[in-house]
Amino acid sequence: SALLTVAAPSLCVLGVTAVATASVTGNDAPGEAGEDIALGGDELDEEAAEAARAAHAVANKQFDTQLQGLTAAADDYAERASRTQGRIDLEERKAEEKRLAAEEAKRKEEEAKRLEELRPKFFLPVERRGLSAVYGQSGLNWANLHTGIDFPVRYGTPVRAATDGTIRTQYHVSYGNLMIITAPDGTETWYAHLGSYVYQSGFVQAGTVVAYSGNSGNSMGPHLHFEVRPGGGSAVDPAAWLRSKGLEPS
Ligand SMILES: [Zn+2]
Predict the structure, then answer these.
(1) 3 CA distance to ligand 1 centroid (A)?
(2) Domain M23ase beta-sheet core spans what residues (predicted)?
(3) Residue 75, Cβ neighbours under 10 Å: how many?
(4) Which residues contact 33 (CB under 8 A, 6 or more apart)?
(5) How many Å lie between the centroid of ligand 1 and the Cα of residue 190?
(6) CATH 3.30.565.10 fits 149-244, yes or no
(7) Three-state DSSP class for 246?
(8) Strand spans (E) along the chain
(9) Is the pLDDT at 35 greater than 80, yes or no?
(10) Distance (Å, whole) CA 210 – CA 189
(11) 213 CA distance to ligand 1 centroid (A)?
(12) Near ion ligand 1, which residues have CB within 5 Å?
């Protein structure tokens, strides 16, 4: 509105100049038109004075109209300026909110990434308490050499996913209740002789309790038989595999 504050007085000056010009035109002598004319006392002077007053009145009226117009214009401008400012404020606030939301999303993403990097990716399937049978061992219970390692745990011991992966389960005459978790790289970890399942399908993260140990299938007593099969192929020594992940099973 600063623009109009300046504009209004300058138009006032123009208006006043117009009035002065109109007054002077009706007289021979310069000076204050009304006074000179009134003092003359002449018929023509009276007419001239009347004409001057009329012109003055017209000029005043024009000036008033101009002023009214200016006032209206100023009000209109102020209102539009206010609306424009309001819109700018709203847009700035929206932009700021958008920027803050983007920052927050980025911060959360970085925090999630950091936590994901910190998260252990491999776990022992049960708490460490030594092994009751090692890989490759021969014995009466196995038709061939032992394809996994046995953890001597009590019935109902929580069994954790050794890797992230997708779960499937099946019953096998020798393995009993068997859970197989397939890691994203294709490595399978097998958990045999289970007592019960927590999950029977779906994707879990390493360390999730997925089942409870038991004595199902060809088992001479409660324990967890654990196998590792890279790419879903032949079994390798789980103890060596766990050690390669920084875990000590025995
Ligand atoms: Zn075994």
Answers:
(1) 91
(2) 145-238
(3) 12
(4) 23, 24, 26, 27, 49, 52, 56
(5) 11
(6) no
(7) coil
(8) 149-151, 158-160, 165-172, 176-182, 188-192, 194-197, 202-204, 209-213, 224-229
(9) no
(10) 12
(11) 13
(12) 148, 150, 225
Delimit the domains of the chain by residue range. 2-118, 149-244
Residue 100 vs residues 5, 64, 68, 109, 212: alpha-carbon distances, Å:
39, 53, 47, 14, 46
| Contact assessment for residue 183 and residue 163, using Cβ atoms and an 8 Å cutoff | yes
Ligand 1: centre distance to CA 5 (Å): 95
Report residue 50 as tokens: 């009347």
Could you give the CA distance from residue 56 to residue 53 in angstroms, rounded to a whole number? 5
Segment 54-73, tens digit of pLDDT: 888 888 888 888 888 888 88
**Amino acid letter at 38?**
A
- Tell me the CA–centroid distance for residue 183 and ligand 1, in Å: 21
